[in-house]
């Protein structure tokens, strides 16, 4: 035997004890927790329990929950697969918004975090600058840029959250049971046509409709 302690367990939790804790390991455990049980379940005590250590040990790597969340936001932004810069405003905005949306779909809790706790990452600033430049190159003045920028982000946030659920029309239908075709013919037809439609295609099409307006 070599004396390795990789399978040692915490005497208090019975869970595997980490031989060496690091910021990366703390972040990995935090991402695993929010992806499986949601953002409200992420507490320093629960995270310490997941890692087989005590809460005070975590404070050697992160200063607190807000610091942990900011680091998670930084990593989320860093993992966005951003496209090369395009001089065509529509192509530039389409590429950027699609990349952001893809990352948000993987971790929709990020949208909730930004909206409810007011946290943000400075690493998103290059994306913001590129979006504003694209709108400026499209001929928008400052007021139009501000309005269009807000509209694009609101759509991206909302779609990222909604895409992890059934969608508003489907929730309406689920709450009503069988749709009375005679009373709600348009709704019934829409739901019938939506069967098998991929949400990704809905996002892409609606994004272009949005850009038709703001550009």
Automatic annotation (TrEMBL):
Q: What keywords were assigned to this record?
A: DNA-binding, Transcription, Transcription regulation
Q: Which domain of life is it from?
A: Bacteria
Q: Name one GO biological process term.
A: negative regulation of DNA-templated transcription
Q: Which residues bind DNA?
A: 43-62
Task: Name any one GO molecular function.
Answer: DNA-binding transcription factor activity
Residues of the signal peptide: none
Q: Which InterPro entries match?
A: Homeodomain-like_sf, HTH-type_TetR-like_transc_reg, HTH_TetR, Repressor_TetR_C, Tet_transcr_reg_TetR-rel_C_sf
Record's SUPFAM superfamilies?
A: Homeodomain-like, Tetracyclin repressor-like, C-terminal domain
Q: Domain named HTH tetR-type: which ranges?
A: 20-80
* Pfam families given in the database record: TetR_C_1 (PF02909)
Q: What is this protein called?
A: TetR family transcriptional regulator
Can you name the source organism? Answer: Quadrisphaera granulorum
């Amino acid at each position: 035997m070599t004396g390795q302690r990789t399978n040692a367990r915490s005497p208090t939790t019975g869970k595997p004890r980490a031989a060496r804790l690091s910021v990366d390991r703390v972040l990995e455990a935090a991402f695993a927790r929010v992806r499986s049980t949601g953002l409200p379940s992420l507490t320093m005590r629960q995270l310490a329990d997941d890692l087989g250590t005590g809460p005070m040990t975590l404070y050697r790597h992160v200063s607190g929950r807000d610091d942990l969340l900011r680091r998670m936001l930084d990593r989320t932004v860093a993992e966005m697969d951003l496209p090369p810069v395009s001089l065509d405003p529509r192509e530039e905005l389409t590429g950027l918004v699609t990349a952001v949306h893809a990352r948000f779909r993987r971790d929709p809790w990020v949208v909730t975090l930004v909206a409810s706790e007011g946290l943000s990452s400075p690493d998103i600033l290059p994306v913001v600058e590129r979006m504003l430049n694209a709108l400026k190159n499209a001929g928008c003045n400052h007021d139009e840029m501000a309005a269009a920028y807000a509209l694009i982000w609101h759509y991206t946030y909302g779609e990222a959250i909604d895409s992890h659920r059934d969608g508003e029309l489907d929730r309406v239908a689920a709450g009503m049971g069988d749709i009375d075709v005679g009373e709600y013919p348009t709704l019934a037809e829409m739901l019938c046509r939506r069967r098998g439609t991929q949400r990704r295609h809905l996002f892409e099409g609606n994004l272009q409709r949005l850009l038709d307006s703001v550009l």
